[in-house]
Design brief:
By secondary structure, the protein is an alpha/beta fold. It has two domains: about 170 residues, no CATH class; about 90 residues, Sandwich (Immunoglobulin-like). The chain is built from eight helices and eight strands. A hairpin with a 4-residue loop joins strand 1 and strand 2. The protein is elongated and about 85 Å long.
Amino acid sequence: MLGTLLQDLRHPEYIHVLLNPLPVYGLVVGLVGLGVAIWQGSRSARAVALLLIIISTTAAWPVYEYGEQAYDRVLSMADHPGQAWLAVHKERAENLIWFFYALAILSVLALIVSWMWPRTSLLLSIMVLALGAVTLGIGGYISYAGGRVRHREFRNEPPPATLRKSAAPAAPAPSQPSGSVAPVATSVKIRMLKYSSETIQIKAGETVEWVNDDLTPHTVTSQSGEFDSGSIDAGETWRHTFTQPGTFPYFCTFHKEMTGTVVVK
């Protein structure tokens, strides 16, 4: 289990999912704490609440960055409505994340002032509370679209009517008519983020078939540019005929730790 977890943490989409509740839920706790601290007039409680708000809002940056890194991989695994929601999720995050940064800066300023000029810090704390309420609503607005990318049960309304160009459905894997290629000499199973077998040997003119028995799309992409399957969805296959002798290493563009080699004699 630990090995699986460590492997998952190498993928940006997993880290994005792990971190993305913090800017919203952490902000809720921080704002409630700040409101209570202001009401009770406790300077120390106000400082703790401001510190929690700072941590929560600055966490928006790694959440955004890992989301950007995971965009293409998640796009390839999403269905058409999911791709539409993903485009909206990305656009909202790009346009509105600045509220989190502004709140973090204002909270830092309020924390410094609370220690240096405690009598004048109340106004800043109230400003943090007001901007925090707006930012919290924005965080929910961004998350609303993100939750519908993979969770179909949350889709209680139609997806956006138009897709951004960056979210256009991935082109299907190029197909090869059965009558135009040689018979399949060997098959490579794709399962549990591995090619099995990772190294195969064939003769020139023979055809290799890759069968995706995994739960997510994969690709078969030559490191030298000789071939590229495009996205192979779960349950689909892709074939390639090797006409020249040589050694052809390849990998999955979605999961770069997946590698394989075809040796053509």
